[in-house]
Design a protein that fits this description.
Layout (H helix, E strand, L loop, with lengths): L2 H22 L7 H16 L10 H23 L7 H20 L7 H37 L1
Helix pairs in contact: 1-3, 3-4, 3-5, 4-5
Length: 152
């Protein structure tokens, strides 16, 4: 991975961390009614077309949002690290998630501690790490192919 890609990953990771911090450290829990109401209106027609009804449950939507929020952290964290240090990104996502939940428990009275959030965030970090490893593998294969084609 080039140093340029690493530097860009670090810069993007900083931006994503600021956005995540703004979301998770907001003093009050996001109003579930606006999120659920919009999702309900959008997804209900799809349930009749075969979409699982469980997706209309707020807990499922919240879990999906937690996974999605941490995918970029795992992805960019993995790209920012040397190839052999890939394992640090999902561990850091887990540690960050525990820190967030403890902060919400101890310092934000209108927020709640949730093991489900820790699981979702960690799964998102792991998924991001897998996607980054796949991207590195594809980039490496393309580079090797270009080099072998140039030599011929």
């Amino acid at each position: 991975m080039s140093s340029f890609v690493r530097r860009m990953a670090v810069a993007a990771l900083g931006v994503v961390l600021l956005v995540v911090a703004g979301i998770v450290l907001w003093p009050t829990h996001p109003n579930a009614s606006w999120l659920f109401g919009d999702a309900d209106r959008l997804l209900t027609p799809l349930v009749g077309d075969g979409l699982p009804g469980i997706l209309l449950h707020f807990g499922a939507l919240e879990l999906a949002a937690n996974i999605a929020m941490f995918v970029p952290l795992g992805f960019l964290g993995t790209l920012a690290l040397p190839r052999r240090g890939w394992w640090v990104a999902p561990v850091a996502c887990f540690a960050l998630s525990v820190t967030i939940e403890m902060t919400q428990l101890l310092l934000l009275p209108d927020r709640t501690f949730s093991l489900r959030d820790i699981v979702g965030n960690t799964l998102g970090g792991l998924l991001g790490t897998v996607l980054a490893a796949a991207a590195r593998g594809i980039a490496g294969a393309v580079t090797r192919r270009r080099r072998s084609t140039a030599v011929e």
